[in-house]
Design the sequence.
């Protein structure tokens, strides 16, 4: 089992953002997490990446407990996050952002050349400050930067946010190729159709609880929509 | 005319020393957004360590400087890991108060260990060596060496920051420590190494100062002030700006001293205020702050 989460709870100040989550993910699979704003999706990803302290519960990654590990240690174990809003380093060039992602020094498939093969447009703009790139290109840098750490599990927090549909389509094509290279994915996505189409399994979160879980192929849009709005379990 | 040329040259040479005072301050501020109030006292401590180590090692000031740089570098690493790290992230004031406390402790600690007497570091013949540039301008070899060291330190910091993997982490952590952590960068280690480098430079600056002038345990805050003015005049976070800022303060002090020896320090402060009023971002502001 790649990832095993048991009874995970986390809070923002006094507000309980995650109220006891249990789920698992096998290696090589893609899990999509959907839910309304404030359902706890980003908090969950940040907990998994070690950037948000949990209140209680356990997270095992490849059998190892992640309790109390700082984000940089979790990254070294093979979990990389593409954060919401991209969070690129504006003072660094495209290439420097990518190289920074590789600083964890994990060996594996991904290196600078392979990332440039995946995103040829970034190779052309390698010396440019990231602030000068388009939104889609910035998202490519964010994904490439996370890949440079050669993660076993790649966490993507709303990679399609604020991008044009044609760019989103292109990005999801890239995610399929990343998957084919053997990386497991955990996708947080607002677009239900995208989430169902790109994943093997799906979780729906409402107010910090899992209200629906199942294989993406067997879940209907209506079921998810009902769970999404808290109408049914 | 040649008198003014001489003032200019001596001011630039003095500015090299001020740039050395300021380089570590500039680095720590640039990376951690922390103003290290104890920086001046670390410069003085560095001078004392260099004096003691140099004497113990047979009176060679270079050996003293190296020991002092290693000792303060190690102290900086531990200080950041064990003390200052706890103060980061709790607002600007917390770190300022902690380093202010450190400054008081260091000053009184030095008083206890080293007595309040003025001391200086003996560097032998190089202290009085010099050559004439003509027109009544004489350049001391040692002040020129200090200026060259300052340029070398700035060059090295520039290279470290913009050309190495460590520098990449440094800039990333300075911009967004949270995301840098997610990318596998240990921000606390980067901070500690930056503080180690800053205090090693402070030790070098202290040794140079101790050879040029006398010093005593209470001389720290004034060195901090000169260094701080150099950083602000040059533009926060800009390394070359720090060198330029040091030279500006040095030249202004030289002009002041020429008018009346009592005016030396006041002239430096007035130049600082004037530049702050005309160019609040400093002479060479960083692009993103411009």
Sequence:
């Amino acid at each position: 089992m790649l990832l095993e989460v048991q009874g995970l709870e986390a809070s923002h100040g006094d507000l309980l953002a995650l109220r006891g989550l249990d789920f698992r993910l096998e290696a090589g699979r893609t899990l999509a997490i959907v839910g309304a704003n404030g359902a706890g999706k980003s908090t969950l990803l940040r907990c998994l990446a070690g950037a948000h302290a949990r209140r209680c519960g356990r997270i095992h990654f490849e059998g190892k407990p992640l309790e109390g590990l700082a984000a940089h240690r979790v990254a070294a174990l093979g979990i990389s996050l593409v954060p919401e809003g991209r969070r690129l380093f504006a003072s660094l060039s495209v290439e420097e952002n990518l190289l920074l992602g590789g600083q964890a020094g994990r060996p594996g498939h991904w290196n600078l050349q392979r990332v440039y093969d995946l995103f040829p447009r970034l190779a052309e703009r390698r010396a440019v400050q990231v602030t000068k790139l388009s939104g889609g290109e910035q998202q490519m840098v964010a994904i490439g930067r996370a890949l440079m750490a050669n993660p076993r599990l790649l966490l993507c927090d709303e990679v399609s946010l604020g991008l044009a549909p044609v760019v989103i389509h292109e990005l999801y094509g890239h995610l399929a190729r990343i998957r084919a290279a053997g990386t497991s994915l955990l996708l947080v996505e607002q677009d239900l159709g995208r989430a169902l189409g790109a994943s093997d399994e799906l979780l729906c979160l409402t107010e910090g609880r899992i209200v629906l879980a199942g294989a993406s192929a067997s879940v209907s849009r209506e079921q998810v929509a009902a769970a999404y709005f808290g109408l049914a379990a | 005319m040649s008198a003014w040329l001489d003032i200019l040259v001596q001011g630039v040479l003095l500015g090299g020393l001020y740039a050395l005072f300021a380089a570590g301050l500039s680095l720590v501020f640039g990376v951690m957004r922390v103003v290290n109030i104890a920086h001046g006292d670390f410069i003085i401590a560095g001078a004392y360590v260099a004096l003691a180590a140099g004497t113990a090692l047979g009176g060679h000031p270079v050996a003293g400087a190296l020991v002092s740089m290693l000792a303060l570098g190690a102290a900086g690493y531990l200080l950041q890991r064990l003390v200052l790290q706890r103060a980061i992230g709790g607002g600007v004031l917390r770190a300022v108060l902690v380093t202010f406390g450190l400054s008081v402790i260091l000053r009184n600690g030095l008083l206890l260990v080293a007595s309040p007497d003025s001391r200086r570091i003996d560097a032998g013949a190089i202290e009085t060596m010099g050559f004439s540039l003509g027109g009544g301008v004489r350049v001391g070899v040692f002040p020129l060496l200090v200026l060259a060291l300052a340029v070398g330190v700035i060059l090295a910091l520039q290279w470290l920051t913009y050309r190495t993997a460590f520098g990449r982490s440094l800039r990333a952590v300075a911009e967004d420590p949270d995301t840098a952590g997610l990318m596998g960068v240990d921000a606390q280690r980067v901070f500690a190494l930056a503080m180690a480098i800053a205090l090693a430079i402070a030790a070098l600056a202290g040794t140079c100062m101790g050879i040029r002038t006398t010093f005593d345990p209470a001389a720290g805050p004034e060195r901090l002030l000169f260094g701080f003015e150099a950083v602000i005049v040059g533009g926060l976070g800009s390394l070359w700006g720090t060198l330029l800022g040091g030279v500006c303060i040095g030249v202004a002090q030289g002009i002041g001293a020429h008018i009346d020896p009592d005016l030396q320090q006041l002239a430096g402060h007035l130049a600082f205020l004037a530049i702050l009023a005309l160019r609040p971002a400093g002479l060479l502001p960083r692009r993103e702050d411009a």
